[in-house]
């Protein structure tokens, strides 16, 4: 039972590693990306209407008088802002993809700094396996209980990791699909802060991948440094309890780091 749970954990960790190296365009074969492209195109019509509204609001809010509206430099400044916002709305998909590619390059750099990537596997030590095989019926009852609870918690943690990474992809898709609307806010001086906040938030979601990769690398380094210390002179139940406790402790730290990736990125970049 415990070996099966560790196998599930290793599979989910390998899946997580593979997901983090994918782009939103290639995720799930690209079918979801095609839907996002269609939604983005549909939202652009709304965004162009908001573009004109934000532009008009910016012009009249920043003009101290009607005479100032007639100044060429004033009109040129607002026209350039409007043109840049229009290009951003029309090229929102390309802009979002470029930002993700830049952040993805950081992820690849982190992985390359430790020799490419990959995750160490958690496995039950041979000493514990041998001790468990020699346990009698009465002693197997508490051993079964320890194995059951440990396996249950390990399985739950493994699925929490995967759900977190899948949630990140869904947030990337939501940002990309609706990107024309916040990008349209750059047309007005008073509303440009909305677009800036959107770009910062999107960069934060992209950078979560680097934090998750780093957390997995640290966890793999812990595993590669050797199995958790277990006193082989103790009973099989005690050895199993010690091992499961130490393994779950490391898994809890990894899960907490992955779940807290969003908060870590926000604290690092002041988002």
Structural class: mainly alpha
Q: Tell me the number of structural domains.
A: 1
Question: What characteristic shape results from the CA principal axes?
Answer: elongated
Q: How many H/I helices?
A: 11
Query: What fraction strand?
Result: under 5%
N-to-C CA distance: 44 Å
DSSP helix fraction: over 70%
Average pLDDT for all residues:
78
The total count of strands amounts to 0
Poorly predicted tracts of residues: none
Largest sheet: none
Oligomer: single chain
| Helix and strand element order | HHHHHHHHHHH
Radius of gyration: 26 Å
Give an overview in words.
The chain has helices at about 1-20, 30-60, 65-70, 70-90, 90-110, 125-135, 135-175, 180-185, 190-225, 235-260, 260-270. With about 270 residues, the chain is mostly helical. The longest helix is centred in the middle third of the chain and has 41 residues, at about 135-175.
Supply the key terms.
271 residues; mainly alpha; 11 helices
Summed up:
This protein is an all-alpha fold and 271 residues long. The protein contains eleven helices and no strands.
Outline the secondary-structure elements.
Layout: H1 2-20, H2 31-62, H3 66-69, H4 72-90, H5 92-112, H6 126-133, H7 137-177, H8 180-184, H9 192-224, H10 236-259, H11 261-269
Helix pairs in contact: 1-7, 2-4, 2-7, 5-9, 7-9, 7-10, 9-10, 9-11
